[in-house]
């Protein structure tokens, strides 16, 4: 199941499209303006964005440029504009695909699956469970277990742990975490990372003074590794 964000202001298109995509197994959220769509894309981190260009508050091409400045989320532009020059401009601006209205939900579904398959960390890699020592992170179910016991995490805590678990033994900088997990530029927000790491440590039954999995590298970032890897 992919998590899709549909940014479309026309209710007569948005409502049936949401229903049809959900019937095809996707989790679908929607926004009717560019700024609401940008906020949802950064906060909820969907697997793919379906973007209309004719939005009421901002042209979709400008929103695409804003998204590309802070996120690599795949984007399919879905619009009535069928001019070849416009299509080329949008693809050059960072869109992964372009579909012209009117289109069917089946066509959009097929294009979405194709974009997700060929993108970095395609479906198989993205949904594989990550195991580090006794820690198991399952992105498909968005569940974490520690030594077989379920660990209840908030969505952001899960995303943070999943990112770290995908890089075991590596030092991950706060800059990378803010960019990849929070989808925001680095600068003055590193306390956000510190607070979430503190919450995550508590739920994993450790602390910064006596780490088991999460090891702070002062002035650089954090490293996640299995306790058995420690001397």
UniProtKB/TrEMBL annotation:
Domain annotation OmpR/PhoB-type: ranges: 127-226
Residues with PTM 4-aspartylphosphate: 52
PROSITE patterns: OMPR_PHOB, RESPONSE_REGULATORY
Domain (Response regulatory) ranges: 3-116
Tree of life domain: Bacteria
Alphabetic keyword roster: DNA-binding, Phosphoprotein, Transcription, Transcription regulation
The entry's DNA-binding region: 127-226
Classification via Gene3D superfamilies: 3.40.50.2300, 6.10.250.690, Winged helix-like DNA-binding domain superfamily/Winged helix DNA-binding domain
Cited InterPro entries: CheY-like_superfamily, OmpR/PhoB-type_DNA-bd, Sig_transdc_resp-reg_receiver, WalR-like, WH-like_DNA-bd_sf
Keyword rRNA-binding appears in the UniProt entry: no
Coiled coil: none
Protein name: Response regulator transcription factor
Native species: Micromonospora tarensis
